[in-house]
Amino acid sequence: MSLYSRIKSLSAGLLLAGLFSTSFSALYAQGLGNSPYSVLGLGESYSDAFAASQSMGEAGVSVSNGIHINNLNPALWVRNRYTTFEFGTIGQYKQLAAPTATQRDLGANLAYLAIAFPAAPKWTLGFSLKPYSFVDFESRTTDKVPGTIYDAYYYYTGRGAVNKAAFTNAFQIGKYLSVGLESSYLFGNIRRSSESQLLIGDGRDYLIGRNERTSYGDISFRGGAALRLPLKENNKLNLNLGGSYSFGTNLNARQTTSFDLSNNSFPIGQPDTLTNNEQGGVYLPSQYRMGVSLEWPFRFTIAADYEHQAWGNYRSFANTNEGFANSSKFHIGAEYIPRFTSTRYLDLAAYRVGFTHGKSPYNPGGNHLNDTSVSLGITLPIGRGGNSFTLSLIGGQRGVISNQAIRERYGRVLLGLSLTDVWFVKQRID
Predict the structure, then answer these.
(1) How many domains would you assign to the chain?
(2) Structural domain that includes position 415
(3) What are the φ and ψ backbone dihedral angles of 426, each rounded to 5 degrees?
(4) Structure pTM?
(5) Higher-scoring residue by pLDDT: 144, 330
(6) In terms of C-beta density within 10 A (0-12 exposed, 13-18 middle, 19 or more buried), how is residue 128 classed?
(7) In a domain, 396, yes or no
(8) What per-residue confidence (pLDDT) applies to 150?
(9) For residues 421 and 160, what is the distance between their CA atoms, to the nearest angstrom?
(10) 126, 116 in Cβ contact below 8 A?
């Protein structure tokens, strides 16, 4: 490849990264639509899986084809022997159902930005930027004030996100083993507010509000290992084993809480600051994932993963658990490429299917809520250079309809773009 082509590819990649990074702050604040369960903790977590892995039911902690970045395991980044830039977006349609009400909601967000490049024959470096969690909820209720004939109006809202900027080092050790370490910085802020109003109807209705803003910032680590064992000669069939471990993190936080009183939208006096930049912390529990897969390279792959996170150990800024319980999930997925050397376009595409089932960290009223989903996906090549476009479709259900819980039925669409080029390779003149 000529120097001009490389400069052109690099410029295009940097331009895309700049454009998407500029729009990142505007996009992530929208979350993925109203999510009542995001009232707890740091909100609803985003998956570490990129688009290709999402369409396999998020399975694949043990295997990577080296074409796409597999972010489920830091050790698998070393399989990317060419410089790879990946970008993804996510959209979600959700139907919420409670015993007395239903709601439909829609949201979209940036899913991830990532770049991997080989620094040495057995060493790959990577950078990524993605949302870690989001808070996006809104609820309104009206109820009688005990002992009176008057109604009271209650309004609860929350907005914000925590983001994750990560640096990954992955190494190949020997012929079969790879290891990796992800060092990340979590940052962001979340705002929550609660308002109440006594509805007397004589023009003297007072609105009382409590506003809370919490800022977060600290480092976290995730390690991983992967083992590829050939079962047939010439790399025709491999057995893969892999696992990753996210260390528990004490996330530094600062919180400001204020109280205000208004009448007919006019403030009465200055807001009263209850706490100003109070320092504290949040403990994010450890998580591990392990998996196994059978791989016919560039033909067929089947993978199964199990993940567990000790949400029972979570501690909020107020040093409470907020009702979280340990979560665990099973992931199963498959990928099929009809014929990698074919001249027919659809024979070069990768087709995927997946299934996920397990317990979410939410435990309202002592009832652990399940989360189940199925997924489909396709990767379409763009030319012969390794560039591709990935579409992933996910449909699922979380929770049940009860007095303590809300049922969420969701449909997600992920769009991923992967750009590959050859950088840092010494030129040879024959």
Answers:
(1) 1
(2) 3-129+163-184+219-245+282-421
(3) -65, 130
(4) 0.87
(5) 330
(6) buried
(7) yes
(8) 77
(9) 36
(10) yes
